[in-house]
Design a protein that fits this description.
Mean pLDDT: 86
Largest sheet: 3 strands, antiparallel
Distance between the termini: 30 Å
CATH architecture of the largest domain: Up-down Bundle
CATH superfamily of the largest domain: GntR ligand-binding domain-like
Shape: elongated
Helix content: 55-70%
Strand content: under 5%
Number of helices: 9
CATH class of the largest domain: Mainly Alpha
Order of helices and strands: HEHHEEHHHHHH
Low-confidence stretches: 7-13, 214-220
Number of domains: 2
């Protein structure tokens, strides 16, 4: 496993959550590729921490579906598997559907404006093929419902499950196909403005289910 180019940037030991987030982000952004072996010693050198928080982070990542522990052998980055991705997608779509249903009745104009602004940034990022900015804007858009819903369990579950979809989103947001999400977002805002919580919730679910798994063998 090649040590990421970020090696040495951590000047003091990281908190456990920071260790988890650093490894998770390296998996999601492709620094650690599917099937790559994650070696404790190299992770220690990169992050500047002991083996204990690294093992704890890897256990969390295994539960999240981002790594696979091969008993007595190694821990590897989980492959981009269509079946497991679909299972996660269905859960994430359902969680966002619930967030919308809870949030719409109490939305204020400032929340709708924040969603519209995020969607505008999302569209500009897609046009510029700026995948990182597109992901951030998409996160900002959906975070409005999650925050306004007032349900911390929803937030925690999404933090655990959404990263599995990030690798798929990186492929999609770099393609023309992602632009249909701009129109879907606009329709969600329209329905939310009308106060139609059920329709907005269904639209949110469909927006997440429209994400399609692709691979090098299937560029569609």
């Amino acid at each position: 496993m090649p040590v990421p180019s970020l090696a040495g940037v951590h000047k003091r030991p990281l908190l456990r959550d920071n260790v988890f987030e650093s490894i998770r982000n390296a998996i999601v952004d492709g620094t650690f590729e599917p099937g790559e072996r994650l070696k404790d010693a190299e992770l220690e050198a990169w992050l500047g921490v002991s083996r204990t928080p690294i093992r704890e982070a890897l256990l969390r990542l295994e539960r999240a579906g981002l790594v696979v522990a091969l008993p007595g052998k190694a821990t590897i980055v989980a492959p981009c598997d269509p079946a497991s991705t679909l299972s996660t997608q269905q859960v994430v779509a359902g969680l966002h559907e619930l967030a919308a249903r809870l949030a719409v009745p109490t939305l204020a104009e400032e929340h709708l404006a924040a969603m519209a602004g995020a969607n505008a940034r999302f569209e500009r990022a897609l046009q510029a093929a700026d995948v990182e900015s597109a992901l951030r804007a998409d996160d900002d858009f959906h975070a409005v419902f999650v925050t306004v819903s007032g349900n911390p369990v929803l937030r925690d579950l999404l933090e655990q499950t959404t990263p599995v979809l990030r690798r798929v989103e990186r492929m999609r947001f770099g393609s023309f196909a992602a632009r249909e999400s701009v129109a879907q977002h606009a329709d969600i805002i329209r329905l939310a403005r009308l106060g139609d919580a059920e329709a907005a919730a269904r639209a949110c679910r469909e927006n997440w289910l429209s994400l399609r798994f692709t691979s090098a063998e299937d560029p569609a």
